[in-house]
Write a structure and sequence with these properties.
Blueprint lengths: L1 H5 L6 H28 L4 H9 L11 H29 L6 H24 L3 H30 L1
Helix pairs in contact: 2-4, 2-6, 4-5, 4-6, 5-6
Length: about 160
């Protein structure tokens, strides 16, 4: 955490390697989180609709509320950690860039909105599924791009 206060990254190779390892782990988490949600919920509207609301013709029951609440709880918890780590490192490495603040704000809004919107979609209608799918994919892609930029900067420093 010394780096977050002093910004002395170039003098400390161990800190550079530690941060690189953490960001690579978060990058892999983001990829696997998309795979997990694709498997559990689906990443297209017909599959999401079937998962949340069921399908009487195919005898598919909707997802149970406690299962959905557990997934939302885990998503909020894990996304908060990933967002805070990626955001804080990105701010320190790219503080001089003019797009840093809007990107961080967008990342946090989409990342924390995503789990809440799928819960909203469960109780309302399928239109909220479009918002969930968009926010989920966008925050993962934005966090992956920011992670790749961090990795690039750490490897070149």
């Amino acid at each position: 955490m010394k780096f977050l206060i002093t910004k002395e990254l170039s003098h400390n190779r161990l800190l550079n390697h530690l941060m690189l390892g953490v960001v690579i782990a978060i990058f892999l988490y983001l990829i696997l989180d998309m795979v997990l949600h694709g498997f559990v919920f689906g990443l297209d509207i017909p599959t999401l609709t079937t998962t949340l609301y069921g399908n009487m013709d195919a005898f598919i029951e909707p997802i149970l509320l406690d299962t959905l609440l557990l997934q939302v709880h885990i998503d909020l918890f894990m996304s908060l950690f990933a967002l805070m780590i990626v955001g804080s490192i990105y701010i320190r490495l790219y503080a001089a860039k003019s797009l840093t603040k809007p990107l961080i704000h967008l990342l946090f809004i989409l990342g924390l909105l995503s789990p809440l919107v799928i819960l909203l979609a469960y109780f309302t209608n399928a239109m909220a599924l479009y918002l969930w799918l968009g926010s989920f994919v966008l925050w993962h892609l934005l966090a992956m791009v920011m992670s790749l930029l961090i990795i690039k900067k750490l490897l070149l420093s």
